[in-house]
Amino acid sequence: MEMRSVGSQGLVSSAEGLGCMGLTGSYGAADEDESVRTVQRAIELGVTMFDTADHYGAFSGERLLGRALSGRRDAVVVATKFGGAEMDDEGRTIGGANGRPEYVRASVERSLRNLDTDRIDLYYQHRVDPRVPVEETFGALGELVAAGKVRYLGISEVRPDTIVRAHATAPLSAVESEYSLFARDMESNGVLETVRRLGIGFVAYAPLGRGFLTGGVRSADSLAEQDLRRIYPRFQKENLDSNLALVERIGQIAAGLGVSSAQLALAWVLAQGDDIFAIPGTRTRRHLEENVAAASVALDVPTLRALGSLVEDVQLFGDRVSAMDTGIQG
C-alpha cells in the first residue's frame, strides 16, 4: 500500500483508508464480529487510516474501533470527528452542529475514552457551527494539540473561505469531503484548489458514491429501511433510475480493463493526486480486499480521460447531500 503525506504538518498515512461509518449499521444491519475482523484485516493489508466519528452509532462506532485496534494502536492513524450534532454523555442527540470551545474540550475527552486511547491522530470538526466563529473552535483545537491529546487537525465539508480561516488559526492537515465520479463539485467550488494552495491533504469520503458506483444498488427498494441512503436525493427512485446510466458507463470501462467497477472508481480517486486519500467503507472482509486491490490499479491517460468526461456525458439527477445535513458547506 502506498504511503502519502497528509498535508504538510507531518502526518503520514496509507493512500487508502477505511471509512468506519457503516460498521455499526448506518447502511443496514451490521455484524459486530465481522466489523472487528474487517478492521483487523485492513491492518494486515497495509491500511493505516481508520475514520470514524462520535455520532456514528451514538459512540458505538468509536468503541468498536477501539476494541478492534487493541494491541495494534501504534500501527494506525485514528481519525475521528466531533460537533456534527450535539450529543449528551448517553449518546443522545440534543442539538445541531456545536463548535463551542467547551463542547470541543468535552468531546475530545469522551472520544478518548470511547476509543480507549491516549491521543487522537486526526481530529476533525465534523460540521461547522454557524453560531460560533471557526476561529473560536480552532483556537480550542490548537490547545488540544499543544496538550498532546490531538496530533493533527482536520475539518469536514466546508467552503474555501472557512478552510483559510481555520488553517490560519491552527494548521490543518486534512479537509474531508465527499468526492468520487458520482460527486465532483470539489473540483469546481474552490475546495481542491484551496487545500493545494495551503498544503493541506484532501480525504475523500464516499469514494464509491455510497456504494452506488459498485453497481450494487440498482433500485431504491433494495435499500434496508434503516439505510441512511434513503434520505439522499440521488438515491430517490426517480433520480436513482436515471443515475444508473453512469454506473453502466463505468461498468463498461471496468470490464475492458478486467477490474471491478468499485476498483475502477477507487483507482480514479487515488489517481487525482498524491495529496488525495480515499476512505471507502465496508462491513465485510470480502469487499475490503476488493477495495484495497484498487490501490494497485494503474490507470493510463486515455482511461483517465474517458472517466473524466463522464461528468460531461452523463447527467446526474438529485443533490449529493440531504437537506438534513444542515451543517454542510459552512
Automatic annotation (TrEMBL):
Q: Which domain of life is it from?
A: Bacteria
InterPro entries hit by this protein: Aldo-Keto_reductase, NAD(P)_OxRdtase_dom_sf, NADP_OxRdtase_dom
Which GO MF terms are attached to this record? oxidoreductase activity
Gene3D superfamilies, alphabetized: NADP-dependent oxidoreductase domain
What Gene Ontology cellular-component terms does the record carry?
Answer: cytoplasm
Does the entry feature the keyword Oxidoreductase, yes or no? Answer: yes
| Keywords of this entry | Oxidoreductase
> Start and end of every NADP-dependent oxidoreductase domain?
17-300
- Quote any Pfam family the record assigns: Aldo_ket_red
- Keyword Oxidoreductase present in the record's keywords: the answer is yes
Full protein name = Aldo/keto reductase
Protein's organism: Streptomyces sulfonofaciens
